[in-house]
Design brief:
Distance between the termini: 42 Å
Number of strands: 20
Bound molecules: arginine, zinc ion
Strand content: 25-35%
Structural class: alpha+beta
Shape: globular
Amino acid sequence: MRHHRLLVPGAAAACLLLAIPASAADATPGAPGIGDSYYPSYGNGGYDVSHYDLRLKYQPTTDRLEGTATIVADAKQDLSRFNLDFALDVSEVLVGGKKAAFEATGDHELEVTPTAPLTSGSPFTLVVRYSGTPSKVVASGFTSWLRTPDGGIAANEPESAWWWFPSNDHPLDKATYDVSVAVPDGTQAISNGTLRSTSSKLGWTRYNWRSSKPQATYLATLAVGKFDITTDTTAGGLPVINAYSKDLGDNAGAARASVERTAEIVDWESTVFGPYPFDALGGYVPNVPTSYALETQTRPFYSPKGFAKGANTSLVVHELAHQWFGDSVSLKDWRDIWINEGFASYAQWLWSEKEGEGTAQELADYTYASYPADDPFWQVEPGDPGAENQFHDAVYDRGALALQALRNHIGDQDFFAILKGWTAEHRYGNASVKDFVTYAEKVSGKPLASLFDTWLFTPGKPAAAQARAAEL
Ligand code: ARG
Ligand code: ZN
């Protein structure tokens, strides 16, 4: 329930006389952060976005990005001003069609002051006109924008949106997206979801993409470049769109041999995790020198390096497992990263088991043995790794070991019921590590605090017996 500030009788009367709604007198600024424990300035308070409409134009030769973001949101408090997270140059902001004052404050904050306060519970529409050269814009000491010889790409975690659209940049505020991007004829623009249409005029081709299910800001992606695009339809009727840079060198074959198996892998994962949550699928491989991959919603980003040793279906299994674990069920706080990475890593073990290349238990035993007790690996707690260790091997490998220990402790029937039930219970929502422990206890009917403390929240190598979880 909202807390009303007490007004002295005289002030209330003055408000009535001036016909100012009581809410306006009460209005306060929205917080510049959403309250994340690792990243206090990420996201914002006071409003909730339901839809982003991005109408952009990108010129690869100059790396200039320009356009307009139309943001549909609801005020969550009487709001005198509010922040967006953004690092490019803004030329105009309209709130409800009226010019609003704005100011860049901090390295990725845009402070917007509407002419009149917004009323709690009311919808409002925001228009932001902007431009920039994202590869040259440094925020928090870096840029996530990857410039390639023929284009540019936004794909990083947790920071990605700052360099291409203004947002409430935290997974707690998910929204739907229309991304429309004009690029020079002969160049393509790839984003999330379905390709609704393309059109060409005056030397520019416009690609209109739609992501129709709630999507976290870091899972929105844009890739401009010259791509070979393959399209297909799944047995269930969903469109599959994959894109490969024309410039992948000798990684091209292995990239295609991996990413073209997307539909098959999604079908198999659906049998383990429950129905696929989105209405499109695919993947894209731009010509970037980086080595990470990212579970951008419906269409993961893969670096060519991931395929340097040959086909890598395991990587595709990982990014596609994130569609359930991370994308549909998103974390509440970046501290909860294990609910993404532990599960996507465990999916790779399940795939290996299914492919006859070693069972999950064999891989768990191998992983457990491969880190000696004095390895710093064991000092990182997957359940609270710290921002600097958010993508540490411990979050992935020890994170998967935690799930094998759970499986051994409660048995296959409950374990697999939990994988499906969890993704159903929190579909399109947010959840924490604590929520998972509670859910697993509910389904299994067993106390699990000690098991999860051992695997997720205690530095040091658990005893071998605990790896089998027989004694817990
Ligand atoms: N979530 C990604 C994955 O595990 C990891 C992204 C790491 N990001 C980075 N910039 N290294 O697939
Ligand atoms: Zn991952």
